[in-house]
Specification:
The protein is of the alpha+beta class and 419 residues long. The chain contains 14 helices and 14 strands. The chain has a single domain, classed as Beta-lactamase (3-Layer(aba) Sandwich), CATH 3.40.710.
């Protein structure tokens, strides 16, 4: 068998990516795949705006909603490992008031794997009132007994993780991210976008359809349900248009406000897939990286109303009692981990293939899991990479340029092409 080349993977993914625009309603998007510190797939196309006046390119920034949780969780894990604090230690050991209302035994593992029962808040608070949200979390009684299952914390997790980082380092999580990951790795990803970059971020567009019979959407619409409370705590920034405002974009929301490029997310996850190292430099302790691919929660999710699995801060494919995947969005690897974002953004690490994958777009689709726009790319990528059991061998140390293929030349609806 001949050695596999990066250009082969790009050529295999390009037609599927093009179909996202011609058959699946995409407006603007990028997909990036990194391996061993180099980008091996770079595809981008479409437009940044509904009027189709601003072409989308590989470096276009976009809001990725909960895909922010991956970079945020990495910050928490690095802080804990650097301070020699166990995941099984109580959060109250660094945040004393967290112990109020019966939370003294809740551990860092619990809050990272969505087991803490703090997905919804009884005390009203606003997303922009950080001190107020922290007080509400401190005074909140868990919504279910710790140890009795798990439920996704869509908003509150970001505040809890942020406060842990602040307690351990004295700096907000968004700053910590840039200091220890974003700037050293050269990543165009921010948790709190600097005002000078506001003009470079594409606006997000709300989903155009709502599926019938979706259990999550039914629970979400039921006032007082755990699902409804979780996605409304704290309050504010419920509409997509409100998330496009400068105030929302420049504020640090570690649970749902990250803005960046597909390449930045793929690069970040490729570093994790390589054991936390790149070019001889260690960015994450090995133990912390191992925790990212070790399931702590697995089974029915009280909030999302379907089976989910979480490691220490990252989503994984859930497993059956027999140890087989009950759903596969991360490809064939059981160790793969990452995070999805509302509407379709998706990024993850596959340690078995040492790759990082990132998909970022602006036209949202309904649902809490990735859709065909990214899943078909991941399926094809897995098929191609598995052709060579030992992985492919790159032709040169330079980052490959996209091949001059049909996808690069194609102009969609008379506008920007895919490049």
């Amino acid at each position: 068998m001949s050695a596999f080349q990066p250009a082969d993977l790009q050529s295999a993914l390009a037609p599927i990516f093009e179909e996202n625009f011609t058959a699946r309603g995409e407006l603007g998007a990028s997909v990036s795949v990194w391996r061993d510190g180099r980008e091996i797939v770079r595809l981008a196309g479409g437009y940044q705006d509904r009027q189709r006046t601003h072409p989308w390119h590989a470096g276009t920034l976009a809001l990725v909603y909960s895909a922010t949780k991956g970079p945020a969780a990495a910050c928490v894990l690095k802080c804990l490992w650097d301070a020699s604090i166990s995941l099984n230690a109580p959060v109250a050991s660094v945040w004393p008031r967290f112990a109020l209302a019966g939370k003294a035994g809740i551990t860092f593992a619990d809050v990272l794997s969505h087991r803490a029962g703090l997905s919804g808040l009884d005390q009203p608070s606003d997303v922009f009132d950080y001190p107020g949200v922290i007080r509400a979390i401190e005074e909140q009684t868990p919504l279910w007994p710790v140890g009795d299952g798990h439920g996704y914390h869509p908003r509150t997790s970001g505040y809890i993780w942020d406060e842990i980082v602040r307690r351990l380092t004295g700096q907000p999580l968004g700053h910590y991210w840039r200091n220890f990951f974003g700037q050293p790795l050269g990543l165009d990803f921010w948790i709190g976008l600097p005002p000078k970059f506001l003009h470079t971020a594409a606006p997000l567009l709300a989903a155009r359809t709502v599926p019938d019979g979706d259990l999550f959407l039914k629970a979400f619409a039921e006032k007082g349900s755990i699902t409804n409370r979780s996605f409304n705590s704290p309050s504010g920034l419920f509409s997509v248009s409100s998330m496009n405002t400068p105030k929302a974009r420049t504020t640090s929301f570690p649970g749902f406000g990250g803005i960046g490029s597909a390449a930045a997310l793929a690069h970040f996850y490729a570093m994790l897939a390589a054991g936390g190292e790149e070019n001889g430099r260690s960015f994450m302790p090995p133990g912390a990286v191992a925790a990212m691919s070790t399931r702590l929660s697995n089974g029915f999710d009280r909030v999302l109303q379907l089976d989910t699995a979480f490691s220490a801060g990252f989503l994984q494919d859930p497993l059956t009692p027999a140890g087989e995947k009950s759903r596969s969005i991360f490809g064939p690897s059981k160790r793969a981990f990452g995070q999805v974002g509302a509407g379709g953004s998706f990024a993850f690490a596959d340690p078995d293939r040492r790759i990082g994958f990132g998909y970022v777009m602006n036209q949202m689709e309904p649902g809490v899991l990735p859709n065909a726009k990214s899943l078909l790319l991941i399926q094809r990528m897995s098929e191609v990479l598995d052709l060579e059991p030992e992985g492919f061998k790159e032709r040169s140390p330079e980052t490959p340029k996209p091949p001059d293929n049909r996808c690069k030349r194609q102009h969609l609806e008379g506008g920007a092409g895919i490049a």
